[in-house]
Amino acid sequence: MKKALTKKKPEKRLLVSLEKKAGRANSGRITVRHQGGGAKKLYRIIDFGQEKFEIPAKVVAFEYDPYRTAFICLLEYEDGDKRYQLAPTDLKVGDEIICAEKAEIKVGNRMKLKNISPGTMIYNIELEPEKGGKLVRSAGTTAKILAQEGKYTNLQMPSGEIRRVLQNCYATIGTVSHPEWRYAKVGKAGRSRLKGRRPVVRGSAMNPVDHPHGGGEGRTSIGLKYPKTPWGKHAFGVKTRRKKGTDKYIIQRRKKKK
Q1: Count of beta carbons in the 10 Å neighbourhood of residue 56
Q2: Fewer CB within 10 Å: C terminus or N terminus of the chain?
Q3: Which residues contact 120 (CB under 8 A, 6 or more apart)?
Q4: How far is it, in rounded angstroms, from Cα 88 to Cα 173?
Q5: How much is the pLDDT for 241?
Q6: Sign of the CA dihedral 42, 44, 45, 49?
Q7: Distance between CA atoms of residues 189 and 68, nearest Å
């Protein structure tokens, strides 16, 4: 809940202003539709890796991050340095955490996968050693360690997919904070615009020149065997996975929601 957030201004040294792209590529053309506008916001520099190694840190504050669904926590290390990290649930102001190769199995502590026992819930997981956390970073998500096999750790991802990750990769103990984010109601169109989302129009409400679904009188069907994108390609049920080289690490695919 936002009531649990610390009433303080964000750490000025850890703020940076990002240039607005509004869905446009280097060419200036819109490559991602329905983006634009939005309220002004500053990006918080998050430490997704383990730059401060084997140095205990104290949780100073919990803060809101306009660029992500989860809350973040401000850590103050023994050497006086301050860093932002993704906040897990059940972590409190004043708690002490550490990033080390082997540490206590405690919420907020970060360590190598090979030193975490099966059944433990983790987040902010590395895919490649020393590259920083890439997986399980959104609000309320968590992965589960199933087994340790050879040089790999078997993980059950939030999607239900079971995959292998190298044991030398780091992960943080716990579940990402703010799980109730998914139940928030936008309430009005203006709030959606403040988040930088432009209106989305149904293809069937357009003219034939603008969309393959367009045209017809009244509520007519799309008149096609399958739905299409504005550019005439298959819209749903199309596999978009490109990194086929990592298929060998997937033990079980995620199951489709009914």
Answers
A1: 14
A2: C
A3: 105, 144, 145, 173
A4: 8
A5: 79
A6: negative
A7: 20
In angstroms, rounded to a whole number, what is the distance separating the alpha carbons of residues 151 and 142? 22
Instruction: Note whether 71 and 31 are within 8 A (CB).
Output: no
Tokens of 81: 């340095």
Distance CA 11, CA 45 (A): 10
d(CA 169, CA 166): 6
- CA quadruple 85, 153, 155, 184: dihedral, nearest 10: 0
Question: What would the pLDDT profile of 204-255 be if each residue is shown by its tens digit?
Answer: 999 999 999 999 988 889 999 999 999 999 998 888 877 778 888 999 888 7
- Given a contact cutoff of 8 angstroms between Cβ atoms, the answer to whether 38 and 193 are in contact is yes
Q: Contact at 8 Å (CB) between 240 and 233?
A: no
Whether this model's pTM surpasses 0.90: no
**Bridge partners, residue 200, by sequence:** none
Q: Which domains does the chain have, with CATH numbers?
A: 2-179 (2.40.50.140), 201-258 (4.10.950.10)
- Cβ-based neighbours of 48, under 8 Å, separated by 6 or more: 86, 124, 132, 133, 134, 137
- The span from the CA of 240 to the CA of 38, in Å, is 29
